[in-house]
Specification:
- By secondary structure, this protein is mostly beta strands.
- It has one domain (11-92).
- Helices cover 4% and strands 35% of the residues.
- The chain has one helix at 89-92, and strands at residues 11-16, 19-25, 35-40, 43-49, 59-62, 65-67.
- The protein has a six-stranded antiparallel β-sheet with strand order 1-2-3-4-5-6, with no helix packed on it.
- The longest helix has 4 residues, at 89-92.
């Protein structure tokens, strides 16, 4: 997703069982996620973050409470470019 309209992906939504399970977000615009938010429905239940931007989760929180680091801890994979693919040949016939 491009949440700020600059044409670059800054969020990755990860689905499980057809629902968004977590959002990986790039908050410093370096192309890599540095925040992971775990969702229950539309509510954030836990947030983990890479405070020094080295690609590894440093801290996790549930609300304002510090909790042990768990879940996705390696954030080295870039978000990548936005690509919606192409048109199916069906749409090219008129």
């Amino acid at each position: 997703m491009d949440s700020n309209g600059d044409g670059k992906g800054d969020q990755r939504q990860v689905f499980e069982d057809g629902k968004i399970a977590r959002i990986e977000a790039d908050t410093n615009q370096d192309g890599r996620p540095d925040v992971v938010q775990y969702l229950s429905g539309s509510s954030v239940i836990r947030q983990c973050q890479d405070d020094n931007y080295d690609g590894t989760v440093d801290a996790c929180f549930e609300g304002e409470k510090v909790v042990p680091v768990s879940g996705v801890t390696d954030l080295h994979q870039p978000l990548g470019t936005l690509d919606c693919g192409g048109f199916d040949p069906f749409w090219k016939r008129r």
